[in-house]
Amino acid sequence: MYQDFASRLAGTVWGDYDKIPDRTTDYPTISELETVVIDGNFPWTIIKVTTEEGIVGLGEAYPSPGVHEVITDYLRPVLEGENPLDVERIYHLMRESLSGRGSQQGIGTIAISGVELALWDITGKWVDLPVYQLLGGKMRDSIRIYADCHGGESMVDAALGGQTHEMYTPEAYAAEARTAVQEGYDMIKFDLDVPSGHEIQTKARHLTDVEVEHKRRLVEAVDAEVGDEAEVAYDLHWNFNAESAKRVADAIAPFNPLWLEDPLPPENTEAMARFRESVSVPILTGENRYGRHGFRDLLETDAVDFVAPDIPKTGGIAETKKIADLAEAYYVPLTPHNVGSPVATMAGVHLGASVSNFFAIEFHARDVPWWENLSTESTPLIQDGRITVPDRPGLGIELDWSVVDEHRKY
Ligand code: MG
């Protein structure tokens, strides 16, 4: 049935999940969507969904340019007047409204994900239950957090060209590992796609033997320092080809890394499956994959040992739960990627509380001292490398808007 674009944007979408007019109980009505960007070590993109009843739901989208425009120009007209408790239905409405404009992956899916988190927050607040309770209940009381570590200054500085290879020494890696373990973490991760000073500037994704040896020495130093106290993973960020990544995998295998992350570029599932078959270290990937379809082939081809969807990117809480359930059918643990503020992190906590195969979620802001101050809670969310699953309604996280305003980008 043909309907013009304007009427679709007004929410009069075709199909059997069109507006549901007859309700026997009261329900809230969405009145406003806003975005606020916090200038963290990433531009943390907070989504505020407000209802006519005054409930404010908080969500967060993966830091990406254009989220504000997608939400303001496309999603707001679709959501205004809707019942936010129909989370799954609204998820499909949002995907329809962005059909052909990124509803399968990329910026459109990222914006949808951010709104979806806020809908769960509103739903929990409306029924006065924590989100994990709406997802099937609680499997665990606390969520393991793993610390992203950098043996030098922050990754942002590196991206700006502010670092030299001297910062990526075995001594710096060992010292950083020790600091993280002293902070209470029993699971940490380091980047291995770091400068060694011996790059030959090839675009062929090739590593020389000297470069591989530099990475081996970084891993050796971390293992010697904290190997008995923490599980340690390493990330290659898609930068190498199969022969070079395999030489890295073989070189670090004696130190039993928890996983090697993104050894190859993200698009070619068959190549990843062949790679996993060729090495003895466990393989993790997923932060650049979208939705259940982004993980189906990885699992069907035995390409991974861990899946790492990014909740505010891949489709939101419900979509990630479906990915988790799909992974469980292959006995693969869920280890969400996370570079977000406390809002995105708490979405991961509720999801992690509710799925059997949850393993740990990432924390990427150890070098942002005011990350905890964004929360109105008087005690830190992360204690001894864990977050206690909150019983507060919704996502159980409220932002201190004075701290937000202090670091507000726009
Ligand atoms: Mg990564």
**Share of residues in strands:** 5-15%
CATH topology of the largest domain: TIM Barrel
Order of helices and strands: HEEEHHHHEHHEHEHEHEHEHHHEEEH
Summed over residues and divided by their number, the pLDDT gives a mean of 92
Assigned CATH architecture of the largest domain: Alpha-Beta Barrel
Number of alpha- plus pi-helical segments: 15
Question: What is the name of the CATH class of the largest domain?
Answer: Alpha Beta
Which ranges are low-confidence, i.e. pLDDT below 50, for 5 or more consecutive residues? Answer: 1-14
Cofactors and ligands present? magnesium ion
When the domains are counted, the total is 2
By DSSP, the count of extended strands is: 12
Radius of gyration: 22 Å
CATH superfamily of the largest domain: Enolase-like C-terminal domain
Mind describing the biggest β-sheet? 9 strands, mixed
Helix content: 25-40%
Global morphology: globular
Structural class given helices, strands, pairing?
Answer: alpha/beta
Cα distance, first to last residue?
A: 41 Å
Structure notes:
Helix 8 runs parallel beside helix 9 (242-252). The protein folds into 2 domains: 2-130, Enolase-like, domain 1 (2-Layer Sandwich); 134-393, Alpha-Beta Barrel (TIM Barrel), CATH 3.20.20.120. The protein has helices at residues 5-9, 67-79, 87-97, 107-127, 131-134, 155-159, 170-182, 209-226, 242-252, 269-278, 291-300, 311-314, 317-328, 342-354, 401-406; strands at 30-39, 43-51, 56-61, 142-149, 187-191, 231-235, 260-261, 283-285, 306-307, 361-363, 382-383, 386-388. Strand 8, helix 11 and strand 9 form a beta-alpha-beta unit. With 410 residues, the protein is an alpha/beta fold. The strands form 2 sheets. Strands 4, 5, 6, 7, 8, 9, 10, 11 and 12 form a 9-stranded mixed β-sheet that branches. The chain is globular, with a radius of gyration of 22 Å. The longest helix has 21 residues, at 107-127. It has 15 helices and 12 strands. Residues 1-14 have low confidence and may be disordered. The site of magnesium ion (MG) has 5 residues, from loops.
